[in-house]
């Protein structure tokens, strides 16, 4: 539902916006306020207008995200389709804003004879999400090719940070509090455009043949335990095809939960807990979720 925003703002403000429209699982209740900024300057102005204690959440393509059926209190800021600048800063350094799809960065770099970003084609999200969780695919990890990042704080002030300002772990990034990523500077190498494009094509074909890309999903649900693979553990427990309501463990890849049509966030969350319990019972390993869960349960 559209809402009137401050006259100085140029973005789009919606109220009680259903998050199911903005998550790759196609589930999620309404958020109080949903803002799509016109650009970084507009985003800064919007953040300055928010109450100091306003809860904020950031969404790109809505992958790696589970929004509960009761919705989200506070404000969601949408970066996909908004913060979409993509440019070459200098030799072998590419700047991509948070809303740019990771796969688009991979193609952009390959087209210009730069190598090292091809793996980004296998990440079904945006640059902002890839930075926040150190997303990886096909042996590559986002922060291994980061030269610098740009952030914005609660007051709308922008900062340039170095990788040394963060603690980078497997699917986890810790850094300055109350700052959010708005752009990345990728440090790349020199290579052959044709070879880069071929590699991207190969990686995408592998993704399409091994992952349930035809059904709504959020990517990998669980982190891989040290020295093991979540999918292998789940499959070993005979959980492929297991369902809670319309949410099911994929028959194609056991670390994916798919919405077969009409699933709720509660269905997905119950299935996550069921898989965790079964793997812990049979394998003695407690799987840690990779997806981010936000929002509240529906009021009774």
Fold and architecture overview:
- This protein is α+β, with helices and mostly antiparallel strands.
- The chain is 24% helix and 28% strand.
- It has 6 helices and 20 strands.
- The chain has a 5-stranded antiparallel sheet with strand order 6-7-15-11-12, with helices on both faces.
- A hairpin with a 2-residue loop joins β9 and β10.
- α2 packs antiparallel against α4.
- The protein starts with 11 loop residues before the first strand and ends in a 6-residue tail after the last strand.
- The relative contact order is 0.15.
Please provide a brief summary of the model:
The protein is an alpha+beta fold and 300 residues long.
Short descriptors:
single chain, 300 residues, alpha+beta, five-stranded antiparallel sheet, four-stranded mixed sheet, 6 helices, 20 strands
Rg, Cα atoms, Å: 19 Å
Strand order of the largest sheet: 6-7-15-11-12
Looking at the structure, what is the overall shape?
A: globular
Integer average pLDDT? 94
Low-confidence stretches: none
Portion in beta strands? 25-35%
Major sheet attributes: 5 strands, antiparallel
Termini separation: 24 Å
The helix content, as a percent range, equals: 10-25%
Task: Set out the fold topology.
Elements: E1 12-18, E2 30-36, H1 40-49, E3 56-59, E4 65-67, E5 72-78, E6 86-90, E7 93-97, H2 102-111, E8 114-115, H3 127-133, E9 136-137, E10 140-141, E11 146-153, E12 158-161, E13 167-169, E14 172-174, E15 179-187, E16 189-190, H4 193-210, H5 230-236, E17 243-244, E18 247-249, E19 257-259, H6 265-283, E20 292-294
């Amino acid at each position: 539902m559209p809402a009137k925003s401050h006259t100085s703002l140029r973005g789009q403000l919606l109220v009680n916006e259903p998050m199911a429209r903005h998550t790759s699982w196609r589930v999620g209740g309404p958020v109080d306020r949903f803002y799509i900024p016109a650009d970084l300057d507009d985003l800064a102005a919007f953040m300055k207008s928010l109450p100091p204690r306003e809860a904020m959440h950031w969404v790109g393509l809505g992958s790696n995200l589970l929004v509960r059926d009761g919705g989200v209190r506070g404000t969601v800021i949408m970066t996909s389709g908004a913060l979409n600048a993509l440019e070459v800063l200098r030799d072998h350094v590419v700047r991509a804003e948070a809303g740019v799809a990771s796969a688009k960065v991979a193609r952009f770099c390959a087209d210009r004879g730069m190598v090292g970003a091809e793996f980004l084609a296998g990440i079904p999200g945006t640059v902002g999400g890839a930075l926040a969780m150190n997303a990886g695919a096909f042996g590559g990890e986002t922060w291994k090719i980061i030269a610098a990042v740009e952030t914005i704080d609660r007051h709308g002030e922008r900062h340039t940070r170095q990788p040394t300002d963060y603690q980078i772990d497997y699917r986890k990034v810790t850094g300055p509090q109350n700052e959010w990523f708005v752009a990345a500077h990728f440090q790349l190498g020199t290579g052959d455009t044709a070879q880069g494009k071929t590699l991207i094509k190969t990686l995408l074909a592998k993704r399409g043949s091994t992952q349930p890309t035809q059904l709504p999903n959020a990517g990998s649900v669980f982190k891989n335990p040290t020295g093991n693979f979540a999918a292998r553990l789940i499959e070993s427990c005979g959980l492929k095809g297991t369902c809670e309501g319309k949410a099911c463990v994929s028959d194609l890849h056991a670390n994916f939960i798919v919405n077969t049509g009409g699933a709720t966030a509660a269905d997905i969350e119950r299935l996550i807990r069921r898989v965790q319990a079964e793997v812990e019972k049979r394998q003695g390993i407690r799987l840690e979720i990779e997806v981010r869960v936000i929002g509240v349960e529906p009021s009774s």
